[in-house]
Specification:
heterodimer, A: about 325 residues, mainly alpha, three-stranded antiparallel sheet, two-stranded antiparallel sheet, globular, B: about 250 residues, alpha/beta, seven-stranded mixed sheet, four-stranded antiparallel sheet, 8 helices, about 35% helix, about 25% strand
Chain lengths: ~325, ~250
């Protein structure tokens, strides 16, 4: 049985090796460039003529009937403030007309930031960027030498997988935090609940990276690991979407095949909805009506949904350890 | 020979490689029996594709035998500690090009759970021994084949196991490197440690091994002392080995 300090030593040295591996790959550089670009965009945001809600009492108001005709506004008894503001991005290169208060503008921008850095675009990119790391590590000419120094291959594999997830999640979390700080400083709107995006991204990678790891063990091929894991994410998305769109709660029977698949597989759309809900950006996200309906009917249960997704990833990791033992013996 | 004194016992070992989907199979080793006492340095010679690397990988547990059994120090392979119990200098190892020798040795030592304090002093000494001290912080991508071989020997020194397998350890080494390798194998012998050396380099085998076995077409001959080989027909050792090789395979051994 391995001692805890020894496991920490093992994970630490694998983390160091993973950092060197990632830095040596050109994709890591691309990841840095993308993060810097997003940071630049966040730092360049300016609000023009957008008042805070506290200032709105002195603002010119649209009559109640007119406001109700236009719709989609919170209408108080004396109408709504007439706001003709503008969100300027990239130092005024992009100008978006904005008819709401500053707080809502902040939430809108945070919903975009959360979408790109913590929702499926970030996950798919992370799967692409990390897809080559394990096949390179498991290359027979290097892996055989590693096995001569540590015979517990399951331990090595799990420590390496943890190191990869930890490295990329930490890197993305740091980018998220810095971009959020930049956005908050430039716009003057502070929503600390946005930081929920950080654990949600960790969860996404913890749930989906083991599939890439399994394919790496099985085939030792980067292309298969990347395309397979992204395709698997797509399959889970389709099952999740189909359940919300075609199988309305009233028609679902406990034994239906779709329901079984939904509970067996990870649930990417559920995770997106949790992200939007926790960061309070759900109303600002352009989501399909079926998803919003499912959410409003409280049809998505957070704990069972997350727990079953994590169980799935644990089973895949376990299967990978067996596959590794059989393949290498 | 008493079982307790054996570093390696191989019984009825066979390995056949099967190609899936093509119905193709290759018998790499057949009916191998071998007993190596503790403290001995055994040489295994043979032409290319005779099964030397396969035998070593089976003994290390990197491959699964088709038939037969292997015991190391009287116990199954799975119970032997790595790398302190047994380790190897393997052929065809590719080091990550982005790491330096210090990082590679530190990495291998760390995954073997050697305490970090002792590891640092130990690996500096080893890098001096293999004469890689000046390039210890250079990336592997800048290394020549000879330097990579020295690094491979360095990782063997780091482990310094009770039973060491050496698969073509002198490959790409210069004269100085071969001398360093010979010294190390002799030091191990003096320390009572067991080494099994598979090589085409008959001079290295002759100068370091007490017994030598010939492996041809997957069949291993009974190990004999250098003296027994030279007495057989009255030829020098290298000539005696070449005479035993199949015609057409003899040119593989230097």
């Amino acid at each position: 049985m391995i001692r805890v300090p020894a496991f920490i030593q093992l994970t630490r040295c694998l983390l160091h090796e993973t950092i060197r591996m990632a830095l040596a790959s050109k994709l890591m550089l691309l990841w840095f460039v993308m993060s810097a670009s997003i940071l630049l965009v966040c730092s360049s945001v300016r609000f023009e003529k957008i008042p805070t809600s506290a200032e709105s009492t002195n603002h010119q108001r649209v009559p109640l009937e007119e406001a109700q005709r236009v719709g989609n506004f919170e209408v108080s008894a004396n109408g709504i403030p007439s706001i003709q503001g503008e969100i300027q991005i990239l130092f005024g290169t992009i100008k978006l007309p904005w008819p709401h208060f500053r707080e809502k503008a902040g939430l809108f921008l945070e919903s975009l930031l959360g979408f790109f850095l913590a929702d499926w675009p970030a996950l798919v990119l992370a799967l692409v960027f990390t897809g080559g790391l394990l096949p390179e590590f498991l290359n027979a000419n290097w892996w055989n030498l590693i096995r001569l120094h540590q015979k517990n291959t399951a331990l090595l594999f799990i420590a390496k997988t943890m190191a990869i997830v930890f490295l990329f999640s930490t890197f993305t979390s740091t980018t998220l935090f810095i971009c959020w700080m930049a956005l908050s400083l430039t716009t003057g709107t502070w929503h600390p609940q946005f930081l929920w995006a950080i654990p949600i991204f960790w969860l996404q990678l913890v749930v989906f990276y083991p599939v890439s790891a399994f394919l790496a063990v099985w085939t030792r091929n980067t292309t298969v690991a990347i395309t397979g894991s992204v395709a698997f994410w797509g399959l889970c998305w389709i099952v999740n979407h189909a359940r919300m769109t075609f199988a309305l709660p009233e028609t679902i029977t406990s034994g239906s095949i779709m329901e079984a698949f939904y509970w067996l597989l990870p649930k990417p759309i559920d995770l997106s909805l949790f992200l939007a809900d926790l960061t309070e950006t759900l109303p600002d996200r352009a989501l399909p009506e079926a998803w919003k309906a499912a959410w409003q009917k409280e049809w998505i249960k957070a704990i069972p949904s997350i727990a079953t997704s994590i169980v799935f990833s644990a089973i895949v990791l376990f299967a990978s350890c067996f596959e590794l033992r059989d393949k290498d013996a | 020979m008493q079982e307790g004194n054996l570093a390696l016992k191989v019984s009825n070992l066979g390995k056949t490689f099967q190609r899936k989907f093509r119905g193709f199979s290759l018998c790499a080793l057949k009916d191998v029996f071998l007993e190596v006492p503790q403290g001995m340095t055994l040489g295994i010679v043979g032409p290319n594709r005779s099964g030397k690397s396969t035998l070593i990988q089976l003994c290390l547990g990197l491959l699964k035998p088709t038939v037969g059994s292997i015991q190391i120090f009287g116990r199954p392979i799975s119970e032997i500690a790595r790398p302190t119990g047994m380790s190897a200098i393997l052929q065809s190892v590719t080091f990550p090009a982005y790491l330096t020798p210090v990082e590679i040795l530190f990495f291998l030592g760390s995954i073997a759970l050697v305490p970090e304090e002792t590891l640092e002093t130990k690996l500096n000494q080893i890098l001096v021994n293999v004469k890689l001290h000046d390039s210890k912080n250079s990336q592997i991508r800048e290394f020549s084949r000879g330097m990579l071989q020295r690094l491979l020997i360095a990782q063997g020194m780091l482990a310094d196991p009770d039973l060491l397998f050496l698969d073509e350890p002198s490959e790409s080494l210069d004269m100085d490197g071969i001398e360093m390798l010979m010294d190390w194998i002799c030091k191990r012998k003096n320390a009572g440690k067991t080494s099994i050396l598979a090589s085409h380099d008959l001079k290295l085998v002759q100068s370091t091994c007490e017994q030598v076995a010939l492996l041809q077409r997957g069949i291993l001959s009974e190990p004999k002392t250098i003296l027994a080989w030279t007495n057989q027909g009255g030829f020098p050792f290298e000539e005696a080995i070449r005479k035993q090789l199949d015609p057409g395979m003899a040119k593989d051994s230097k």
